Every structure is written in structure tokens, then in C-alpha cells.
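Field reference: sequence -> structure
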Amino acid sequence: MQTQLSVITGDLVNSRQLDTANYITGLNALLNRLQQAKLIQRFEIFRGDSFQAVAEPQSGLLLAAYIRIALKAMDAGQWDARIAVGLGDGQAQAAGYASAFVNSGHALDSLEKNCRLALKNDHAETNTIVSDLLPMLDHVIGRLSQAEAQIVQARMFAATNLEVAEKLHKAASTVSATLKRAAYEEIMRFIHAINRIT
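Structure field:
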């Protein structure tokens, strides 16, 4: 049986106009934390502003959303990334790369200007449905303010809102109101729904 995995490939938006060195430092720290938490298996940063990470298949879209939200939490006015998730086999075929890597690369290359999230697996029919749905998730993430992104990021892997309030030294009511305004529950439901069809 072949190993299934997700490959998350991304690159910084408008990197030539930003402080790329600062971004790379922040991105490296973020990916290191995800690896230490065993949420990603391995990662690399290449070509200055591009990155790739490998994770469990059911975690790919969640981690892609998390990375974008975390970048916005660092600097919502400037930092964002185009991110594609490839789902598929983890073992290379005789002719070349494993399908998860190929799917991730193709999905990133085919991203349209109005959407910064993509997901592709080995099933064309599913890919058509997902490509029609993902712009909604992209739109919600793209509209987050820095303060909203900070709270949503903290909540994504926390057990409760209270845990987030204590960690960020904020009132529980502030956390709850911000998560509601940021559509946190809808983001998570959307991700889980996409996971069920892919």
C-alpha cells in the first residue's frame, strides 16, 4: 500500500516589494513550530520566498489556511502567500515524483489571480468541485485584520476559547466576539467539509 500525504507548496505575494529577509525569518520560525508540534513532517524554504512542507493527508488544507492566517497575524497589511495543497501518493513512481508533489506544483502553477488557495488530488471530478469552493475560504481569510488573524491562529490548535484568552492575555468575551466576527467556526466547518470530499 502506498503512503498518502499532503504537500503544501507556497510563495510570498509581492515579495519584491516587501522586507523578504524579515518574512523568511518569520516563516522559518512558523514552520519550525509546526514541525516541533509534529503537525508537519518536514519543510524547506527555497528560491528566497517559496516553501514546501509535507504533512498527513487530512491536515493539508487546515495547515495551508493556518500558515496564511499566521502570516497575516504577523503583518496583515503586507504578508500573505499563495498556497497549494497536493494530495496523493508519497512514493515516487519510476517516471519521477510522487503524485502529491506533482499535484501541489500543478495546483500552485494554476492558481488564478483572484484566489490564493488551491487543492488538487488524483481525481479530476473532485478537483473541479474544490476549485469552485475554495475562493470562498480564500475570501474569508483574505479579509482578516491582524488582530482577528492573531486570535484565529491561536484558536485553530487550542482546545477552548478560554485557553486562547489566557494565552493572549485577553478577556474571554473579546476572544469570543473576535472569533465570531472573523467567522472562525465557518472557516473550520468549511475545511472539514472539503476534507470529507477529498
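Note: The chain has a mean pLDDT of 92.
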